[in-house]
Design a protein that fits this description.
Strand order of the largest sheet: 1-2-3-7-6
Shape: globular
Largest sheet: 5 strands, antiparallel
Radius of gyration: 18 Å
Number of domains: 1
Order of helices and strands: HEEEEEEEHH
Number of helices: 3
Helix content: 25-40%
Strand content: 25-35%
Length: 153
């Protein structure tokens, strides 16, 4: 009898676990990317990796203000992320000239309600890839995932 009860509890907990939202937002199948993820009590880190092994899109969800200063002079594209209006920013290289390899990289920080934040980086290798990754980022919805952080605190 104890084995039957233990097996029932195990199956019930497995079913409940599978119903939880995955830690990283769903990537469209057409993106050709896979998430590498790390989940902690205070953050969820999602790194989208291309078939060649490059990390091209990174999303870090946190309940702590990242205090990243994004300067208006580095502002580039207007866009949306998870339903929020955003601007993408060039990386601040401390006054150094931007190399061609760095020209297609972007960063942004999004603040959601209840002290939840998303830091998003794009590491594109070309202007064309940058456009595709910005479009992909517009499709991501992290609201359910970031809510897990609030519930966990």
């Amino acid at each position: 009898m104890k084995i039957v009860i233990a097996a029932s509890l195990l199956l019930a907990s497995a079913a409940a676990w599978s119903q939880e939202a995955p830690p990283c937002p769903t990537l469209p199948a057409s993106a050709g990317l896979q998430w590498e993820q790390r989940v902690d009590a205070t953050f969820i880190a999602c790194k989208a990796v291309a078939a060649d092994g490059r990390q091209v899109l990174n999303v870090m969800l946190t309940s702590r203000d990242p205090k990243i200063r994004l300067e208006r002079r580095l502002r580039e594209e207007e866009s949306t992320f998870s339903g929020e209006e955003i601007h993408w920013y060039r990386l601040d290289l401390g006054g150094q000239e931007t190399s061609p390899a760095m020209a297609s990289r972007r960063i942004t920080v999004v603040e959601f309600d209840d002290n939840r934040y998303a830091q998003v980086w794009i590491n594109a290798s070309s202007p064309e890839e940058l456009g595709k990754l910005i479009s992909l980022a517009q499709q991501l919805d992290v609201r359910a995932t970031s809510a897990q952080l609030s519930a966990g605190n």
